[in-house]
Amino acid sequence: MASPTVLTWNVSLGVDLTRLFRAESLADVERIAGRLLADVDPPAYEARAEAIAGEIAATDADVVALQEAAVFRTQESSDYGAESETPAKAVLVDILSEITTALSARGLDYSVAAETVTTDFEVPAATDGGTVDVRITDRDVLLVRSDVAVEPAVADTFDAALELTVPESDEKVVLRRGFCSATVRLDGGRFTAVSTHLESVTQLFRLSQARELLARLPSDRPVVLCGDFNSGPGGPTQTYDHLTASFDDAYAVRRSDTDGNTCCQATDLRNEESQLTRRIDAALYRGGLRPTAVRRVGHEPTARVEVQHDGETVSVWPSDHAGVVATFELTATTPTGTPEPTTKTPASATESESTVTGTPSPTGGSPETTAGASGPGMGLAGAIVGLVVGVLSWSRRE
């Protein structure tokens, strides 16, 4: 009987994008983006990736679901807003690459089984050497260990998205969320693993995305749905309740007597005492699966690592979220006849050279918002969407 272990972890952008979207003019955007760019310190990301890889190694996970596995790119001599604007290509930090490199250094062989590019935007940034362009690309990812067989992956973005206009510019930022999935075979068992990151601020979009996600998942086999759902115990639960109407929560089943909070540490990750107060990251499951063990990782103070920043040694958490690792007993299932979702070839973040466009309207849900949406742990699009719900209105939805 197969006993797959699955780890899910929002690995954190590591910068506070809400500062950028407080801008009221293009000059503000450049100034704030320059400060954000200065905070993207490659050695710090490398140290965090080492810590994350250490936790992955300790769990011996068969499948690893990552959220906010972002790429930061730059381009000298900004051409932002030009008619022939070229997307920034010079990689400053690639969080996914840092993690896989750290895993390889430990002799662990994991490969990317599925990947989806969600939000991908670029803004000008003022630096001492002049104005450059900085591009941030967000991704949801599934890693699998080399001995795990993988069937063709599915990767897509949700229809529910927001479109914002940069101040004093015709440039738009399309804020997307998405998911990726892969069906894996292990010790004679077969199940689909999913990595997703739902909207952090507005319940309207979060619930709409959850409905889209459920409609796209196969029901002819067991499914482990991993992600940062931005909904759950300790905060608004409408989306969590919707998901758990058809899925069970491994942590709630196995550890109902403990809080299991996963969100969120300070944005700069330097807080000494844990600030986790909500359980919004989870491994949900359905079909022929039974959880036999579940726990958090990266939530104890001992998980913090030392990094050098501006000549100072500081300790930081591996991420602003804790990870969740669950082991299941996998049994045979009876197919229901539901067809496989349509496969869409995932775009690699290192190859994607243009942002997505268009803003389909979401359906369903209520206008409930998540308290503290401008704080840490809200994710890439969440930091931006905070403006739409009243944090700061320098743009409008068309």
TrEMBL record:
Bias-annotated ranges (Low complexity): 332-373
The keyword Nuclease is assigned to this record: yes
TM ranges: 377-395
Region called Disordered, residue ranges: 332-377
InterPro entries given in the database record: Endo/exonu/phosph_ase_sf (IPR036691), Endo/exonuclease/phosphatase (IPR005135), TDP2-like (IPR051547)
Domain Endonuclease/exonuclease/phosphatase stretches: 7-321
Cofactor(s) this protein requires: Mg(2+); Mn(2+)
Xref: SUPFAM superfamilies: DNase I-like (SSF56219)
Domain of life from the UniProt record: Archaea
Name of this chain's protein: Endonuclease/exonuclease/phosphatase family protein
